[in-house]
Design goal:
The structure is a single chain. This protein has an 8-stranded antiparallel β-barrel. The protein has one helix at about 30-35; strands at about 10, 20-25, 40, 45-50, 55-65, 65-75, 80-90, 95-105, 110-120, 120-130. The protein is globular and about 40 Å long. With about 130 residues, it is mainly β. It has one domain (about 20-130).
């Protein structure tokens, strides 16, 4: 995402079809997931951005000091995206298959954004949790 995003949400995003949003937090993984790090690239991030149009979306996970670390794009239906493209930090764009899911607390705020895509023989995962500040 070359252009700056117009909305910054320090608190979790409220569940609605917001076309663009930038959310602070971090990518984190449970010990059960981390044990698969030899087969799965676990993305590092402290920011997630959502760029959503009518039926498509891009979820970009970035690190403030590095920029974008992984960008998942595809067709969005409700809170689930079918991943068709993945762009990694090194700029390599891959035609992919996978899914991303937006999860919400009962109050409508995003509780997590999780993506898993297949990249050849490896998988790429991003699990973003918004900060509560």
């Amino acid at each position: 995402m070359a252009a700056a995003l117009p909305l910054v949400f320090p608190a979790p995003l409220i569940a609605q079809a917001v076309p663009k949003a930038l959310i602070s937090g971090r990518c984190q993984y449970s010990d059960r997931v981390a044990q698969y790090r030899h087969e799965t690239t676990l993305i590092l991030c402290d920011t997630a951005s959502i760029d959503r149009e009518s039926t498509t979306a891009t979820l970009d996970f970035s690190q403030r000091s590095w920029g974008s670390t992984a960008r998942f794009s595809g067709v969005m239906a409700d809170d689930q995206m079918t991943v068709s493209h993945l762009t990694l930090r090194n700029g390599s764009a891959l035609a992919e298959s996978g899914t991303c899911q937006l999860f919400y607390h009962d109050n409508g705020h995003i509780s997590a954004i999780s993506c898993l895509a297949k990249a050849g023989s490896r998988s790429v995962a991003a699990n973003f949790v918004p900060s509560h500040l």
